[in-house]
Every structure is written in C-alpha cells, then in structure tokens.
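Page 37, top half.
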Amino acid sequence: MSDTKIKIAIGADHAGFDYKEILKDFLKDYEVKDFGPSSADSVDYPDFAHPVASAVENEEFTYGILLCGSANGVAITANKHQGIRAGLCWENEVASLVRQHNNANVLCIPARFVSVDEAKQITKTFLTTAFEGGRHQNRVEKISC
C-alpha cells in the first residue's frame, strides 16, 4: 500500500479520535494531513468534517477520511459540499463499491461499529480500488445539484 502521490486529509470527532490516530500510522506511506481533533475530548464533528471536505473539494488532497461513532454525521456534513461524494463504509465490500460505482472521494468509517483491523482493511480497499467509469460515470455526473 504505497503511493506517495496520493494525499489524504483525515479528521474525526471524539468517538473516532483513537482510530484516526491509528490510521495515521497505518497510512505512513502516504502524505497525510490531520485536520483534528488533537484529543478525545468531546467536539462537534462538523468542525472537522467541513475542513476535510473542503480540502478534497478544492483538490488540495486526493481523498478524505472521516471517522465518528456512526459515521453518519460526518458523511452528511461532507456531502453538503458539491464536489464531495462521501461514502459510509462499515465493511470491506462497501468500501470497494463506493469507489467502483460512486467514485467516492471521502471515506467515512463508523468507529463504534468496526474493529481497528476492519477499519484498516476498509481504508486499504478504498484507497486501492479504482472507479469503474462506464455506465457509472453518467450516474455520478447526476449527483451534484
């Protein structure tokens, strides 16, 4: 899992903080920027999801990774950005499909519902799975409002 051209923006809330820290180490072969938080103290997930989504939307980063308890809050927040296709992934096959069919550019992981090993595998799959294009391209183009 090594591609130094891929830049990853990562962020979380308090429920995803520990996994964020573990994933940063797991992603040591990539260029990763941590958008916070800096501790497991209670925080508001939009304060971290918006900056990650903006950084990906502005093409400063290739992908974003967001973690919170259910991953719903960060996914909803990130998807408010027109250039973002955030996918909530709780298992490996979903991570593959959001890349293949939806060309997702932000991975949202529910820290309370997956193990650390599952989070690592989901991340690896997300980062190494290509968008299939073809019939899916037309669908992806219809997403933005």
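Page 37, bottom half:
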Amino acid sequence: MKKLFNIGSIALLTSLVIASCGNADQGKSSEVDHSAHTTEATAETSAPASTPSTTAAATSNTITVESNDQMQFNVSELHVKAGEPVSLTLKHVGKMDKKVMGHNLIVLKSGADVAKFTEEALKAQATDYIPQSSDIVAHTDLIGGGEESKIEFTLDKAGTYDYICSFPGHAGIMKGKIIAE
C-alpha cells in the first residue's frame, strides 16, 4: 500500500511539473516579438489562421485573409495603397458549416461606429448578418469551412478603415484595421 501511495505521489508531482512547464511557456508567449509572425501581403501571401499575426507589414492591394474555426482572422492590420483597387480574398480554413461558424469580412468606412454597426448586423439574419448600411465599403459573402469569397473595392482616401466579421458574437474578436496609405 505504501508503494502505491509513492507511485501516486510521483505521478501527481510529475503531472504538476509538466503542467507548470506548459504554463511557463504560455507566460513567455506575451514576451515574444510578434513582428517575426507578421504576414506580408505581397501577392496573395497569408499566414496560417491557426497562428494569428498582428499585421501584414508590406503594402499590397492583393490580399488573402484567413479565418478559422477558432473565430480568428490571421491578420489584424493590413496596408493598402489609397486610390487603387484592392482585391481581397477571405478563406475559411476551418471545417465547420457557415450556419455554425460562418465568417465574412466587412470593410467599414473610416470613422464608422463599429459597435452600432454590429448591433444592426445581429438583426440581419435574413441577409447573412449584413445590414443595410451606408457605413459599408465592401463585404464578402458569409462562408463556411473550406470556402472562400473574393471582393474588389477601392479606398479613395488615405486613412484607417475597420473590418469585422458580422456573424453573431464574432465582431468582438474577429476585427482589424486596413491602413490606406
């Protein structure tokens, strides 16, 4: 009986050590230089949606943004040239159906009230959560796992434009900025 207790204690101690090592690694992740994980949006290049980056550093008007089953876009900042056409492709790299984990990408006018727009989007189920709004510059279709949607638009003026996923509950996490330079 004493040996069973010792083996159990060793197993418990080993589990705690392994768990704390995992937490130590997680704690260090906030110290990682995220610039090494950026996506250059130079010709339809994109980072895997499973490892979101903070920015697409290069200025390009041909962009691919990935979304996944964990409610993430793979980039949160894009840089484009103002006054030139933008070609943006949204790829859903997950597997879930759009009724469960649908994603779209809506580009809003500079200065748009994102919270108010998101409220209106919740009421627009019949139009795939895309409300009638003068704040929309462009939007993709609502897509599910394995699908993609491409849009083309022009941001005439330099500035910052918000983009979101308007599927219910997603806009708080799935959002970013397009910087038109």
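Margin note: The beta strands are 62-67, 77-80, 85-92, 106-108, 136-139, 148-154, 159-164, 175-180.
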